[in-house]
Amino acid sequence: MVAKLNLPVNDSVQVIRNIFAEREHYKEFYEALLPDLEEKILTYIELGADPSRMTPFDLSPYITRQRIASEALLVVKPNDHPDPLMRLIGKRKKSLIGLYSPEKDKQPYNILEDMRRKHGLLFCPSCGEPGKPGTLDHYFPKDAYPELAAVLTNLTPMCSECQGRKGTDFQDEHGNKIFIHPYFDPVDQVLISLEICEPYSSPSAFNISVPDDIEQSLRILVCTHIDGVDFIERFEEFCRSQYMTLLSNFSDERLDPDPDTASRIIRRFLRNTEGQSVNRWEAIFYRGVLNNPDLLYYLDNGELPQFL
Ligand SMILES: [Zn+2]
Q: Which of 35, 60, 284, 295 has its CA 20 to 30 A from that of 12?
């Protein structure tokens, strides 16, 4: 599950200024858009990316009458919109989205590469799955909010599995956010509890729940987020394989002339994994083991499966 991340090291407003300053096409459009976009980025940060209070830009005020008049003189191609203003809006939108895929020598190519590869994360901050997340997700999708396509605060590291599941979803029918935003939402607390159910030689279920002390609006967000990235099914598969490794570890431990206790071993595992986030998968798993005295007793004394 999700981890709280620091904002990108580069300042989002300054990066947009630099990107816009490099524009040669649609120069007057970018110049007109810049002050409003700067303000929007600050609002984005202030509101913590709240879709119910952030509508996409209408791009038409940033297109000059002159441009519309010259566009109106052009021959309309079969698939083009008949309205010249709509055609121009379509082109500007495409240009804004293109800012996210710059050539190697343009801004913000290096910044995006660093955000994809040099984040130091060993798990996905959206789902908590182990592994280095290699993609960036547009929290507000670039097609709906083209002006935010290259805004760094709108970009978060994510695993490809989460990105595929999230797609372009971001709000419910009332306009409320349905995904946790790792830069803004208060997710540095334990959000998921795991219950491992008997028999401990081969658990019948790995049940997850949101702890009771989570505040109601965050609880709703956690639930929609879990659903949106298909967390339960993916995490359960992880638990099954992790549990087999655990039993195997304890089978080996018993061969030791001076075996350590399950609670000490698991506490050590937990300490090693929850440093970066208390909600990464290994941390949820080991906490589920540690909070289950019957399971700890089984690991120390029970009959382990023969096939290990
Ligand atoms: Zn993920």
A: 60
Residue 281 · residue 128 · CB < 8 Å: yes
Report the distance separating Cα 295 and Cα 299, nearest Å.
6
CA distance 168 to 164: 9
Helices (H), the chain: 12-21, 27-47, 65-72, 84-98, 109-117, 160-166, 216-228, 231-253, 262-273, 281-290, 293-301
Q: Please, is 105 exposed, middle or buried when counting C-beta atoms within 10 Å of its C-beta (0-12, 13-18, 19+)?
A: exposed
Contact indicator for 59, 93 with CB cutoff of 8 Å: yes
Read off the pTM: 0.93
CA of 43 to the centre of ligand 1 (A): 27
- The DSSP annotation for 248-306 comes to HHHHHHTTSSSPPPHHHHHHHHHHHHTTT-TTSHHHHHHHHHHT-HHHHHHHHHS---T
- The pLDDT, as a whole number, for residue 308 is 66
Mean pLDDT value across the chain = 95
